[in-house]
Predict the structure.
Amino acid sequence: MPNYQIIANQLFQISNCDDLKKAYDSLTGEGTTATQQATFDMRSQFFDAVLNDTDSLANCSREPYEATRVECKKLERVWASASRLNVWQDGNSNSASSFAGAYNLTGGYEKLVQPYLMLGLAAGIGSSNFDVADRWTSGSVTGANFAAYGAVTSDVGLYLKGAVSVGAFVNDYTRYALGNMVAASHDTTALGGKSEVGMRRQLGFLGITPFVAAQIDELSQPAYNEDNTVYGNRFETMRQMSRLTSSGIQLDSLFEVAGYQISPMAKVSWSHEASLQRSLIASSLAAPGYYWRVDGISPAANLTRYDLGLRGRLDNAVELGAKASFVRSSTRNSNSGELSLTVRF
């Protein structure tokens, strides 16, 4: 294995234990696992965009506000939203910290097919740039998501909504192994769904909605080789899961200001991630057949999320919205913002 002899000679010249650990870290490709969580975060953004506003039509059967009953006669709507997400993930003694910034553009069409049943289709495109500075790795994940979704409501306020979705992504990155640049481009696909059940109650001007939700996603990555035949690796076929459960409560209301209908919203939720593994199986292209497992930074097991939103209904057909979200945990923090446009017809 003459190519691996090049690596071995460089390793033998390192006398400091800390420098040797950094050298091995650069060779393993650990930083490339950041593509997995970056993709799961983009998927969560997409599910949020699809399901968060389904009550716009679904709740029309029991809409309490006189001001909105005219618009509820419009049984179809087209909507679009744009969002930005920043995520900081703290590392530990074995895994490096990371940062990712994602953009998503999502749109859909939905129809109230029966007084208590709404169905819709949605699609979205997005890109996430990630950086794992302590592993000399950075890159991007770009892709598209598609979903079919729906909501069922009742006179007593009980509702169920859900979506099934597929996604396809291209991952591009560069990293440095013993100071030498290594690059790769490879594909991944995702299949998953999200469901939520809750009970909406109206107390005067205030709407109160406690809810529970579950989201499951599977990410599939075929085997691929990096471009540097000396310092690069081969990564084997991989499947990773995200199993996220959450519960929370939402408060919302509706006011008329200067002739415009304004609807503020506040929501807090607590989430638990049951699948904490973000790993790869790799071997050196210079020494094929000798495999090791690469464990990246795990996602946070428990999260608290805060959402603040505001909708402005310009008339019976057009609505603008804005939302800010903040996620906090002991190892992970993220902030996101979203702008939306809805047209009913």
